[in-house]
Amino acid sequence: MYFWSDIFHKKYIDTIKFETYSNAIILPVYINNKKYNFQFDTGASTIISKELFSKLNLSIIDSEQAKDHYGNIGKMDFSMLPKLTIGKTEFTNIKVGILKPIQSFKSCGVKIDGYLGNDVLANGAIQIDIKNKKLLISNSIKSINVKNNDSFDIELDFQKRPFLIVNFMGLNAYERVLFDTGSCNNIYKLEKKTFLGMLENEHIKTNNIIDTLESLNKGSGIFGKQNDDENYYVNFDSIKVTGVKFYNFPAHTFNSGGSSILGAEFLTLGKVSIDYKNKKIYFNQYKNKKNRFIL
C-alpha cells in the first residue's frame, strides 16, 4: 500500500478497474477495509452519503451553500475523512461533503455511497479508459502513455473541476465547458443562455434545431429537480474539441446558471487523460469510433 502524499519522489502509477452503468463510472473505494461504491465525478468535489457519515461516526467541521447540476442551491455540511483507499493507493485527511447521493442504479442492484471528485487526485494525473473499464492514477503525466497525443490547456476552479474549450468550426466561435463525468446521459449539455446567445448571433440556425423537448421527465440534482420546462435538441455541423473534429455533433440544452457540459458519453469516443499539475488534457480516440454522428 502506498500513501498518495509520499509517492511524488518516484515514478508511480496505479490501475483501478471499474464498472459502468449508463456511462457512469463506479469505483470500488475502501474505508476501514470495507468496500463502498463511489461514482467518479469530475464535476464535483468528494462527497459521502449521510448514511456513511453516521456509520463512520464522523463530525461536522463546516457548512456552506452549494449548487447542484441544475442550479438548485442547498446547504452542504462537511467533515474530515481520515483515510480512503483506491486500488493500492491510500489518501488521507480528505475534506468531504455530506449529502444524500442520487440512487440512479437501484434497478442494477448498485447503491451509491458517495462521489469521488477531482480534489482527491488533483496533485497528479489520471487516464480514463471507459472501453476497458480502467482508471489510471499517477503522480505524473510522464507515467501515462500520452506520447503520441497533443495536449490542450484546461482551467481548474477551486474544486479542481476541469474546463476546456469547444470550438464551433466555420463560425469563429468557441465555448468554455466543464468536463463532467457525473453527467451521464448526454455527450454535450448546452447551457440555455449560451444557446439563446448563439441563436441571436446566428451561430445556430433554425435548421440546427432538431427538436423541442418538453421536460416531462425532468432530471434531478442533489438539491432538487430540473427547473426549465422546455429544452432543445441541437445539431452542430462540426465542432473541434481536444484537437479532434466531430461532425453532426449533438447537444441538448439545459438551464443551470452555470456552464455548458461535456458529459461522460464523450468518454465512449476515446481515452481522456487529465494532467492536473500542469493543467493539460489529452484525448486518444478509440480506433473503431467514427468522427461523424448519425442523426
UniProtKB/TrEMBL annotation:
<dbReference type="InterPro" id="IPR034122">
    <property type="entry name" value="Retropepsin-like_bacterial"/>
</dbReference>
<dbReference type="InterPro" id="IPR021109">
    <property type="entry name" value="Peptidase_aspartic_dom_sf"/>
</dbReference>
<protein>
    <submittedName>
        <fullName>Retropepsin-like aspartic protease</fullName>
        <ecNumber>3.4.23.-</ecNumber>
    </submittedName>
</protein>
<dbReference type="Pfam" id="PF13650">
    <property type="entry name" value="Asp_protease_2"/>
</dbReference>
<keyword id="KW-0378">Hydrolase</keyword>
<dbReference type="GO" id="GO:0016787">
    <property type="term" value="F:hydrolase activity"/>
</dbReference>
